[in-house]
Write a structure and sequence with these properties.
Blueprint (H helix, E strand, L loop, with lengths): L1 H22 L1 H9 L1 H5 L10 H30 L6 H24 L18 H19 L4 H11 L2 H7 L5 H20 L3
Helix pairs in contact: 4-5, 4-6, 4-8, 5-6, 6-7, 6-9, 8-9
Length: about 200
């Protein structure tokens, strides 16, 4: 009975924190001023430094381009370029991994983001930006190696995707542990995907 009461108290405390998180005036104002970045769970801070603006660009522009653009690009490669359905399958797999993290892992661990984050979602473990970025990065690098493509593609891929991870920490949308966890899970997911033929 005592254990039950402690569990109920902890649950009520967690709900109070979530309510406070979602009701804070600054997050409501941010959602009004920057609806796209708010929807992408990317903070844009007042008087941001140059490096914070770059981090916001990578998380709020580059990452959505990769995440949402993978499927239409895959369809183009499949039906127009005649390269097969592989990239389309990547996009479906990436979406599945993202949704598992978003709807199962984050609520399960219930680890809050840093207080300075302007994200509308309170939980940050693991980082979905990091998970999907590393997953996509690993799949692309493997493709480049297997098909012996130019090293320029490797450099372009690394420059385009890698900065997303430290950017999540710079913006304080995630802790270092949350980013490392997301990246690690993304790499494991990529290995599983490659093992089944992706």
């Amino acid at each position: 009975m005592i254990i039950t009461r402690i569990g109920e108290h902890k649950k009520r405390f967690a709900m109070d924190r979530v309510t406070k998180w979602r009701d804070e005036k600054k997050r409501k104002q941010f959602r009004h001023d920057y609806p796209w970045f708010s929807h992408m769970e990317v903070s844009v801070h007042p008087n941001a430094t140059t490096i914070e603006n770059i981090a916001s660009f990578y998380s709020g522009v580059i990452w959505p381009f990769l995440f949402f653009g993978l499927f239409p690009f895959g369809m183009y490669m499949w039906f127009i370029a005649g390269a097969g359905p592989l990239i389309s399958f990547w996009s479906i797999y990436v979406l599945i991994c993202h949704e598992i993290s978003r709807h199962i892992l984050k609520p399960h661990f219930s680890q809050f983001r840093p207080d300075r984050s302007l994200s509308q979602s309170p939980y940050g473990f693991p980082s979905n930006h990091s998970l999907t970025s590393v997953l996509i990065l690993t799949l692309i690098l493997n493709y480049i190696i297997v098909y012996e493509l130019s090293h320029a593609y490797t450099a372009l891929t690394l420059v385009t995707i890698t900065p997303i991870l430290p950017g999540r920490i710079i913006l304080q949308d995630h802790t270092t542990i949350q980013v490392l966890a997301g990246g690690s899970l993304g790499f494991i997911a990529a290995l599983i995907g490659l093992s089944i033929g992706l």
